[in-house]
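EI: anyone free to look at a 176-residue chain?
SC: sure, send it
EI:
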Amino acid sequence: MYSQNSTPPSVLPPGYGQPPPGPPYAAGLSASPLVSQTSWSSGLCDCCLDIPNCCITCWCPCITFGQIAEIVDNGTTSCGVHGTLYALINVLTGCGCIYSCFNRTKMRRQYGLPEVPTNDCCVHFCCGPCALCQEYRELQRHGFDLSIGWQGNMDRSRMSNNGVQIPSTPLGGMNR
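SC: here you go
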C-alpha cells in the first residue's frame, strides 16, 4: 500500500501525452497550435536561394500561393482552388494580399513562427512575392515537396514509414 504522502508509480507509458517526434506530416497530422516559437528558416528577402520559385512567384504568384495554401490547409482545398481565388481577388481588387496575409497567419501559428518584420498583412501588401517565396522555403524546410501537393506528401510519408511500401491502389481480386 501507499502512504498518503507517497505517490503511486505511473501506469502511463513514458512519453504519454507528448507530441510525436518528427515533422507534422510524418503522422499525417497538422502542427499543433501550441508549437513553441521558432524563427523563420530564411529571411524575407532571401529570394535568391531559390531562383526558379522566385521567377514563378514574380510572374504568376497564384501558382505559388495555391501550392502553399494547399499544404497549410492540410489538403482540405486543392492548390487550383486556392490559386484561382487568389487570382480572382487580385484581378477584381488588385489586392491578392487580402487573401494571402490570412494564410501566412495560419502558417505562422501552425509552425510557431514570429510575426516579423511586421504584421502579416503589411508583409504581404508591401512584399507579396517575397513573402510567398519565404513561406514556400519554410514549408520545404519542414519536409514538404510543394510540387506534389498535400496528398503526394502524405503518400510519400506513408511509403517511407518503417521502409514498408504501401500500395496506393488496392490489389485486384480473384480473376478467372
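EI: The chain has a mean pLDDT of 77.
SC: 👍
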